[in-house]
Amino acid sequence: MKKFNRILLKLSGESLAGATKQGIDTTRLEEYAEQISEVVEMGVQVAIVIGGGNIFRGLTGSKKGFDRVQGDQMGMLATVINSLAINSALQANGTKSRVMTSIRMEPIGEYYSKRYAVECLERGEVVIIAGGTSNPYFTTDTASSLRAIEIEADVMLKGTRVDGVYTADPEKDKTAEKFDEITYDEVYNRNLKVMDLTATTMCKENNMPIYVFDMDTVGNLKKVILGEKIGTLVK
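The structure assignment produced for this chain is given below.
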């Protein structure tokens, strides 16, 4: 039995780059599409927000002399490229999907609205929401929180290359311990880098649970949907 009926899946742009560390790894793209298609066939309604860090990250650009606003706008466009890639891979897999953008750019994508997004989800289509919040200074984590709350998702699934939330970065500290569950306040107090503070605060204030798991291991998305405890629940 599936544990969730409607999810907002946040994907990492960096993870989409795979071993190349930049651009789009077609093997990783196909793996993501297969996992998403698998849970759609189970009857799960899936909305997706994907980052753009594999192409351009506004904050990093501003440190190298880019104007922050224009840098963030470049980052928003990077999320559109990744969203189109996911959309294409899903459709090639036989899954109905569409791209919606927070900034008007028809015919690349349809302009996002909550009502229309929910209608599409209820028809069994995957809705990929690109362009972040459409505003500079806000991350795609914040966009994910916002969209999850708007579409009334059961949970926000944060798919990363790490299998949950740890006391420290497990890629740098081998003694780091993993949490099975943690509260929003503990995330604050421990200064854990689950998401940025704006995103975490939005989830806390709107009672939106966050589940952090390793999306790069094929089959993990289905395990999360079935309720297997392979990641960390933030609530």
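Interim note for the steering committee: The chain has one domain: 6-234. The chain has a mean pLDDT of 93.
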